[in-house]
Design brief:
Elements lengths: L4 H12 L3 E6 L5 E4 L2 E2 L21 H19 L10 H14 L3 H4 L1 H12 L3 H17 L11 H6 L1 H12 L1
Antiparallel strand pairs: 1-2, 2-3
Length: 173
């Protein structure tokens, strides 16, 4: 099963916000522009100047080009996650969103979550698969969350609504 690209794009834009016409710092302090595009050397503002500071203007067209490129990159990288091709469309979109938001490095930050996904796609028991999807969602919410009193994960705290949506997609498939 595969996700519908237009639905994916709408979801990512909803999670990233309306797109910013100026450069800004994300919650980690990274210089960002448009729909969550991490500014890299060579990115230029509306006047052709390198983007090096907050508040530099970009065009709507540039924001859309970066969004398309960043989405294509996230789709390609998420497609390499073990069992991606055997996941439901909803879970595929969740993996892409996680990759778009945190880069493919999220799989190193949440190795237990990746292990639960692997167990879920390999399970011949629907009940066991469901339990592993729930464990994955819990891991994203609490990070090594054997003791939920320790609080939510950094991902959960920083992305709030997005994290709730993504973990629901993972649990419910």
């Amino acid at each position: 099963m595969e996700y519908v690209e237009s639905n994916l794009m709408m979801m990512l834009k909803d999670h990233e916000g309306s797109g910013r016409g100026v450069s800004y710092e994300d919650v980690e302090g990274n210089l960002t522009a448009g729909f969550g595009h991490l500014v890299v050397p060579g990115d230029v503002d509306l006047n052709g100047n390198p983007i090096t500071n907050k508040g530099q203007a970009i065009s709507d067209e540039q924001a859309e080009r970066w969004f398309k490129s960043d989405t294509d990159n996230a789709v390609q990288r998420a497609g390499g996650i073990y069992g991606f091709d055997r996941m439901s469309a909803s879970r595929q979109k969740a993996m892409i969103d996680l990759t778009f938001n945190m880069g493919i490095g999220w799989t190193n930050k949440f190795p237990n979550a990746v292990g639960y996904a692997k167990d879920a796609v390999n399970s011949s028991s629907p009940e066991r698969a469901k339990a592993n999807w729930w464990r994955m969602a819990r891991e994203l919410e609490y990070k090594d969350g054997k003791d939920i009193r320790s609080g939510h994960s950094k991902y959960w705290k920083q992305t709030k609504r997005r994290a709730k949506n993504i973990t629901k997609m993972i649990r419910e498939g």
